UniProtKB/TrEMBL annotation:
The keyword Cell membrane does not apply. Residues 183-281 form the HTH araC/xylS-type domain. This is AraC-like DNA-binding protein. Keywords: DNA-binding, Transcription, Transcription regulation. InterPro entries: AraC-bd, Homeodomain-like_sf, HTH-like, HTH_AraC, HTH_AraC-typ_CS, RmlC-like_jellyroll, Tscrpt_reg_AraC-type_HTH. It holds the Pfam family HTH_18. It comes from the Bacteria. GO terms for molecular function: DNA-binding transcription factor activity; sequence-specific DNA binding.
């Protein structure tokens, strides 16, 4: 998917560690040449990476490869949104470091992460220790940050379960005009996900025909606009199933599905579980369909 280029930091550095704290995380589709490791501390919503759309919450840990378009969009529930972000370039220890035989396995891990990884841990103590290491980075010297980063990457590569995010290789934009177009479309679809796609409004916004918009979007993202919207709807539905006591039928209609059976099929296709089983597994409250 095509997005806005973001220059990280105000100076030429190969590693940045900082906390992002805002009342909300607005939709901002962008990319940059650095790897990015993000740990969510507070807040929940949707995480969009390449052609992947998933829900996120506290403890969500993701590693993104260079020039991979992404954004976080905070959800329906208000409150603080905090994330720890670590951005680094592969050449942080020189151009040949990760080509050394001793670094071969770590280099393979980083190469596989170019399309994005979300991590989970079977061992809660290792997970807590890793989170603590990440959070101490801003207080350390630059040399200590690099050493701790290598330890973090080694832990992720050796002990964490990595779930691949973007299924297709998404190229960053070449033309500024295309950047603006794809960002406009994605923002529009996310803002109106619970409605039928209003192609008439989009054609007026972009001064393009409906057919041209659909071809452009498919060429840029590898999927149709309907697929994109349905993925976003399922992500919102999963959040509502976990965090609210609304009935499954109510949620289906709230996120824009006019047919309950169709919602069930789409949900199971993307989540591997029916909405009812998903709620029973992950939700705070199980509610039967009336």
């Amino acid at each position: 998917m095509r997005a806005r280029f973001e220059k990280v930091g105000g100076e030429e550095r190969v590693l940045y560690a900082f906390e992002r704290s805002e009342t909300s995380f607005p939709f901002y589709w962008h990319y940059h040449p650095e790897f990015e490791l993000t740990l969510i501390l507070e807040g929940s919503g949707q995480r969009l990476v390449g052609d992947s759309i998933e829900e996120y919450g506290p403890g969500d840990l993701v590693l993104l490869g260079p020039n991979l378009p992404h954004t976080y969009r905070s959800g329906l529930v208000g409150g603080p949104n905090r994330a720890f972000v670590l951005q680094f370039r592969l050449e942080l220890l020189g151009n040949i470091f990760f080509s050394l035989p001793e670094m071969r396995s770590l280099r393979r891990f980083l190469d596989r992460a170019t399309q994005g990884f979300a991590f989970s841990f079977a061992n809660e103590s290792k997970k807590a220790l890793l989170h603590a290491q990440i959070l101490t980075l801003p207080t350390r010297s630059t040399s200590a940050q690099i050493l701790v980063l290598l330890e973090i990457l080694d832990t992720l590569a050796s002990t964490a379960t990595a779930h691949a995010l973007s299924r297709t290789h998404v190229l960053p934009p070449v033309k500024a005009e295309d950047q603006k177009r794809i960002n406009t479309i994605c923002h529009f679809l996310c803002e109106h996900y619970d409605q039928e796609i209003d192609y008439a409004r989009l054609t007026k916004k972009l001064h393009m025909s409906q057919a041209s918009i659909c071809r452009f979007f498919h060429r840029a993202t590898g999927r149709t606009m309907t697929e994109y919207v349905n993925n976003y709807r399922i992500s919102v539905a999963a959040h509502l199933l976990k965090e609210t006591d609304k009935s499954i039928l109510e949620i289906a209609f709230e996120v824009g599905f006019g047919n309950y059976s169709h919602f069930n099929r789409q949900f199971q296709r993307r989540k591997g579980k029916t909405p009812r089983l998903f709620r029973a597994t992950f939700g705070n409250t199980a509610v039967q369909l009336n």
